[in-house]
Amino acid sequence: MNIEHAHPDDLAELRAAFGVDDAGESALGWEEVNAFEAAHGVVLPEPYRTFVAEITDGSFSGPPDHGLVGVAELPDDWGDDRPVRTLSAPFPLTEAWLWEDDPRPYEEIAPLLAPVFDHGSVVLGTDGCGMYWHLIVTGPHRGHIWNISGEGATPYGAEFGHTTADSGFMGWVRHWSAGKPWFDA
Q1: Counting C-beta atoms within 10 Å of the first and last residue's C-beta, which end of the chain has fewer, N or C?
Q2: Three-state SS for 39?
Q3: SS (H, E, C) 94-106
Q4: Closest Cα partner for 144 from 130, 131, 158?
């Protein structure tokens, strides 16, 4: 997983996977990507960074099931009463956490949940039912994809179990475009 440089072959594969052939008209452009990064105090990991700058900023042709939202957007079912998202704050997890099975009382767990949903990640989209895909942009898991739902949070990639997919945005898209179920291990 290379999160610092976008390989031209990966970009061609992303363009094909999303069916983008509009010569970059649906992309943000580098000026907008740089402005987004400056406003949020982050640098987006590659190849996602070049993807939104040069290929497209969101797509109805998946992944995830309800489409890829733009870098500055949130899925329609995200809700209006959530805390302000702080992308520059480090994403707090480095391993899966199923808070639904956590033995601690809810009063102890509740304050720990908002940072999982709202710190250090760009929301890529939803598969519905409150199941969101996040690209981590700050912290030790920068560049990794996480599945975060009402029950827990799980890193995505073969090294974490549950899937045969490679880590990162490219591995996540490759797995989807191959028609494989998300959790196939």
Answers
A1: C
A2: helix
A3: CCCECHHHCCCCH
A4: 158
Would you call 56 exposed, middle or buried from its count of C-beta atoms within 10 A (0-12, 13-18, 19+)?
buried
pLDDT bracket for residue 185 (50, 70, 90): confident
Q: pLDDT tens across 16-71, in order?
A: 998 887 776 889 999 999 999 999 999 999 999 999 999 999 888 778 888 899 99
Whole-structure pTM over 0.90, yes or no? yes
Tell me which residue of 19, 107, 124 sits closest to 70, measured CA to CA.
124
Position of tokens 């045969």?
Answer: 164
Residues 6 or more apart whose Cβ sits within 8 Å of residue 92:
112, 115, 116, 119, 120, 139
**Amino acid letter at 32?**
E
How many other CB atoms are found less than 10 A from the CB of residue 148? 21
Which residues have C-beta within 8 Å of that of residue 101, sequence separation ≥ 6? 152
Domain 8-177 listed as CATH 3.40.50: no
